[in-house]
TrEMBL record:
This is Uncharacterized protein. The chain crosses the membrane at residues 105-128. Keywords: Membrane, TPR repeat, Transmembrane, Transmembrane helix. SUPFAM superfamilies: TPR-like. It comes from Dispira parvispora.
Length: 566
């Protein structure tokens, strides 16, 4: 009997979690015997009838009643363990909070959506921070909402080009930043509802905003409105001595966001350089706008002041101890820092001479215009040789179509576009027809211009000599020198055909061929004129210049409809 008593306890010690407790051993023994769990007396237990039996009697009585030991019981292979059925209420309570497959998928999609929103918000913040602090830094005095308007305008101007959207953002910024509209000629609304930073009328940040608005209006062809914005900037540059002190304070003083970018330590940081250079650029822009509004006398006055400032800057550089070949500086233009070297100054000088020659030609002073263009062509040859030497030495590098500032592309664009509809050449009697004929074919928005997205390095000096030779041909014919005009046209066509740097070269060749066609038609050579117009149409198609294609094709159709005998 010792084995009977010790075996259940040994089993309990190996399977139970707490074998040292007496109640656990008793419960295990009761489960083993399939009897009610009551605490037995010594050497006795309870039978199913509730009477006391000795241990020997209980054991034999249970075996005789058909009791089977647990280790001998047979279980079904399909259901190895008996499932406990619960009440439906108990089942629903136990399954509460569990996720099925649909819930898990929804949770995963929700987590992915939250992560995407966070990543997108971080990307937007990074772009806005980069534009507002690096690409087009905003004065740290300007707070929201004016700051957000300026950053949005820079994005629409530099990242996602749209001149009208950028202009709208700048107008909203001007409403917020303008402190009073009493002395504001641009009719800037400073409503009481506008909140944010308020600036004085002559503050450098506000003057820069007017300059950017003028440049965008200039690009869109709204020249009278652009002149109003330029005039505010011109008064600050030339007639407000306090402006330059405030500008120096903003660049090198209390506002680190607009810090002068002099990382190499070799940039010219003198305020005198800033004054002469900014005045020269502004005079060039104002003179070009006035030229398109037929205010020739005022245009020549502004252009003359620009040449004077540029000449004084050149004299200062010549008298300085530094090397002019590696000289460079930075100025704030179009809301961002723009680097200028000595070759950019040469290009600016050529542009000034070109615009001044245009003003003289449109007034009928063809001799002066011819002299200025000849001088510009000679200087271009000399400056280009210096520039090629700098390229070989690695002092400068060529830009791409995306990095060339728009104000450097303006000269090529207007030189090409202004010659499209010039049917009679420059003569004193027909010079006034020049602008009215040209306006029909010049697009009002830069988005309508040919989109030359070429990642190759380009030289924005490439087409200047060909374009100016074509101009000299027009002036020569206006002065009655036909043979000289034909020679200039042929040289211009040869250069534009051999350059082929960007599609603008094909467009320039189309313009020259058109002038040669007009010259042939005026001297009763319709067959040669048709050949020239056909070649001009092909060059315009090569350049993807739709307005030019339409114009050349119309001239070709006109000649084809004429009798062959003429």
């Amino acid at each position: 009997m010792r084995h009977f008593y010790t075996f259940p306890f040994r089993y309990a010690r190996t399977k139970a979690t707490q074998p040292t407790l007496l109640s656990t051993r008793v419960t295990t023994l009761a489960a083993f015997c399939s009897l009610p769990t009551r605490t037995p007396t010594l050497n006795s237990t309870l039978n199913p009838l509730g009477t006391n039996l000795t241990t020997t009697q209980s054991f034999h009585t249970t075996r005789a009643a058909g009791w089977v030991a647990p280790w001998k019981r047979r279980q079904s292979p399909a259901q190895p363990y008996e499932l406990v059925k619960r009440h439906p209420m108990v089942q629903s309570e136990s399954s509460r909070g569990a996720l099925n497959y649909t819930g898990r998928a929804a949770l995963l999609f929700g987590m992915a959506g939250c992560f995407s929103v966070i990543m997108l918000a971080g990307l937007v913040y990074s772009v806005m921070d980069y534009v507002g602090n690096d690409m087009a830094p905003v004065d740290d005095r300007i707070k929201n909402p004016g700051r957000m308007y300026l950053i949005s305008a820079a994005i629409r101007d530099l990242v996602l080009p749209d001149t009208q959207s950028a202009l709208n953002y700048l107008k909203e910024a001007s409403k917020v930043l303008a402190k009073s509209s009493e002395s504001d000629d641009a009719k800037i609304d400073s409503s009481k509802e506008a909140t944010g930073t308020k600036l004085e009328p002559g503050d450098p940040a506000l003057i820069e905003l007017y300059l950017r608005m003028g440049e965008l209006l200039d690009q869109q062809g709204q020249w009278m409105e652009a002149f109003k914005g330029y005039q505010l900037v011109y008064n600050a540059y030339f007639n407000n001595p306090k402006f330059w002190a405030q500008l120096a304070k903003a660049y090198w003083g209390e506002h680190p966001t607009l810090a002068f970018p002099n990382s190499d330590g070799q940039a010219d940081t003198t305020l005198t350089t800033q004054q002469h250079l900014m005045k020269t650029i502004l005079a060039t822009q104002v003179g070009a706008v006035l030229l398109r509004t037929e205010a020739y006398a005022e245009a020549k006055d502004y252009l003359g002041k620009g040449l004077q400032n540029l000449q004084q800057l050149d004299n200062n550089l010549s008298n300085s101890d530094g090397n002019a070949s590696v000289w460079h500086t930075w100025i704030r233009q179009s809301g961002r820092w723009v680097r200028y070297d000595i070759h950019d100054l040469h290009f600016l000088e050529l542009r000034l001479i070109h615009t001044l020659a245009e003003a003289h030609a449109l007034q009928g002073d063809l001799d002066t215009a011819y002299t200025l263009y000849k001088e510009a062509l000679n200087r271009l040859t000399r400056y280009r040789a210096q520039r090629q030497q700098a390229l070989k030495l690695g002092q400068i590098s060529l830009d791409t179509i995306d990095t060339v500032p728009w104000h450097w592309r303006l000269i090529n664009r207007y030189l090409m576009r202004e010659q499209i509809a010039l049917s009679p050449f420059f003569t004193p009697a027909t010079a006034s027809q020049y602008l009215s004929n040209r306006e029909q074919y010049v697009p009002r928005d830069q988005d309508e211009l040919p989109q030359w997205q070429d990642p190759r390095p380009i030289d924005n000096w490439a087409c200047l000599d060909a374009q100016w030779m074509d101009r000299l041909g027009e002036l020569s014919y206006g002065l009655g020198r036909r043979e000289e005009a034909e020679r200039w046209f042929q040289e211009a066509l040869t250069l534009s055909d051999t350059s082929d740097v960007i599609p603008a070269c094909a467009a320039c060749a189309s313009v020259v061929l058109g002038h040669m066609a007009v010259l042939a038609e005026k001297h009763c050579q319709p067959r040669e004129a048709r050949i020239y117009w056909q070649s001009a149409t092909g060059k315009a198609e090569e350049a993807e210049d739709l307005p030019r294609v339409i114009y050349c094709q119309s001239q070709l159709d006109r000649l084809r409809q004429r009798p062959t005998s003429q």
